[in-house]
Design brief:
Radius of gyration: 22 Å
Strand content: under 5%
Shape: globular
Number of strands: 2
Helix content: over 70%
Structural class: mainly alpha
Strand order of the largest sheet: 1-2
Largest sheet: 2 strands, antiparallel
Order of helices and strands: HHHHHHHHHHHEEHHHHHHH
Distance between the termini: 36 Å
Length: about 500
């Protein structure tokens, strides 16, 4: 094949994975936009319980890929595991359509979503890595565009599901709107699976070794039985917060121990890359504490302290639903992703590309700016309600920071980690993200509002105080990231064999 034909083939393969990822994210973020509101407004949870339940669930969703990556690498195959995961996810969202006040119905549905995400997430990312393996500049660009595809799906669902919830609640009663919105998430997964079946031949040459062999029915049965057990355990963890805390911390210790073992027993030429990956993963933990605020403290801030009427020069244009503000994040990422991808590619050709570690440091600085914008919300507030423009400005800065840190997290694994460890390390990256998602829920509880406090003037000060502290924490993370830059340059040179 000519170089042009190879590039066309890779692009088609990349699009196949990106499209099913788009629909998977459509389902996930459509659910995420509403889940904290659902627990507080529909099930009557306190802020503190809703934040911690969702933090624990997000942690489990991010921790489970450590097992799903191994299943894809060694047991069922990368492509098969990804497809099974999407089917399980569709089932999870279908269970959330059951109109019940019983919290165990919710927890079991979320448990199914945890298992499905664990199967899907690491294997989709690993397929992108396999398509562009060996080309560092294209890996950065590919994962940035891949991240944009994620945000296409999340944008539409975050705008759509709150609108569906409000419309159905208004016309058919408060009991049904939430569940109708969750049904849309299920439909998204079904569309994604149908699209994958139409385009699956483009991935024929990619996958792990088990993908090249007929499916082992015995192993498949064991995986499915293990999945049922995992659903039950997840539901228990969500119900009992002490168990959730213990599980997340143990997961972190175990993965760190395995990571240390792999570094100590790796080949000499692999060690520098693994250490570099570990340093960047630790930085990612801090980033996702900030990230988790979007669906917890920022979401509740939008509910209680933001003027939902969007105006330009005094002219009213539209009225937001509080949950729809979360869509600002993927909208800005879609705008910024192609710009950054172009910059990365051009800089790579001129040998002037900023290192991933440098991009992480810059990302933390921009995240700090975003939270300082939120902390100044009180300066634009009338009767405790701040302008929608504050949310827009804060999300614009925050989203750029996310692209520079989280958007390159998977690319970092692809660059520094040996192929034989690819699935596990993708999983380890998500475990680190999961631990910080739980910690993010803990941090959000510093702005937990008592149920009897309804005055926006009181709640405004509580939220802006938290956002100011988060801005200062992001500044500290920026300085730490800058301080380790010399170490990262040294490790990068050793990884590339330059002494």
């Amino acid at each position: 094949m000519t170089t042009q034909q190879v590039n066309v083939s890779k692009t088609k393969s990349f699009m196949t994975v990106s499209l099913i990822e788009l629909w998977e994210r459509f389902g996930y973020y459509g659910m995420q936009a509403l889940i904290v509101y659902f627990m507080i407004q529909r099930l009557g949870f306190e802020d503190s319980r809703a934040n911690l339940v969702w933090g624990a669930c997000a942690a489990l969703i991010y921790v489970s890929p450590a097992i799903g990556g191994w299943i894809g690498d060694k047991v069922l195959g990368t492509k098969r595991t990804m497809l099974i995961g999407s089917a399980i996810l569709a089932l999870g969202y279908a269970l959330m359509t059951i109109p019940s006040d019983n919290t165990w119905v919710l927890f079991f549905a979320l448990g199914v979503i945890v298992v499905g995400s664990g199967m899907f997430k690491p294997n989709a990312g690993n397929l992108v890595r396999k398509i562009y393996e060996g080309d560092d500049s294209k890996i950065d660009s590919a994962f940035t565009i891949y991240y944009m595809a994620v945000n296409v799906g999340s944008t539409f669902s975050m705008l759509l599901t709150p609108w569906i919830k409000d419309y159905v609640n208004e016309h058919y009663g408060n009991q049904f709107g939430w569940h109708a919105a969750f049904a849309v998430c299920c439909v998204g997964l079904l569309v994604g699976m149908a699209n994958y079946f139409l385009m699956r031949n483009a991935l024929a040459q990619y996958g792990s070794e088990p993908d090249t062999k007929p499916v082992n029915k015995g192993k498949l049965a064991l995986v499915l039985m293990g999945s049922v057990v995992a659903v039950g355990l997840s539901a228990l963890i969500l119900e009992y917060q002490d168990l959730a805390r213990l599980f997340v911390y143990i997961a972190g210790i175990v993965v760190l121990a395995i990571f240390t073992h792999l570094i100590r027993n790796s080949e000499k030429h692999e060690r520098a890359g693994l250490i570099a990956a570990l340093v960047l993963i630790i930085q990612t933990v801090f980033f996702f504490i900030f990230y988790q605020q979007m669906s917890t403290s920022l979401a509740l801030f939008a509910l209680r302290n933001v003027d939902l009427n969007f105006t330009v020069f005094g002219t009213h244009l539209l009225t937001w639903s509080p949950a729809q503000f979360q869509a600002l994040n993927p909208i800005f990422i879609m705008i910024l992703s192609p710009i950054l991808a172009l910059i990365y590619t051009k800089a790579g050709k001129n040998n002037k590309d900023l290192s991933i570690a440098g991009k992480f440091a810059l990302g933390f600085a921009v995240v700090a700016l975003g939270f300082f914008i939120y902390s100044f919300a009180g300066n634009f507030a009338v009767n405790g309600k701040t302008s929608s423009w504050v949310m827009i400005a804060g999300y614009s800065a925050y989203s750029l920071g996310e692209l520079l840190v989280s958007g390159l997290g998977l690319a970092m694994i692809a660059r520094y980690v040996p192929e034989r460890m690819g699935g596990f390390m993708m999983g380890a990256y998500f475990v680190a993200s999961g631990i910080s998602q739980y910690l993010g829920g803990v941090v959000a509880n510093f702005a937990s509002i008592p149920r009897d406090m309804t005055d926006p003037l009181q709640t405004l000060n509580i939220y802006t105080s938290l956002f100011n502290k988060l801005g200062m924490a992001a500044v500290v993370c920026t300085f730490i990231a800058l301080a380790v830059l010399p170490l990262m340059r040294k490790l990068d040179k050793q990884h590339q064999g330059i002494h």
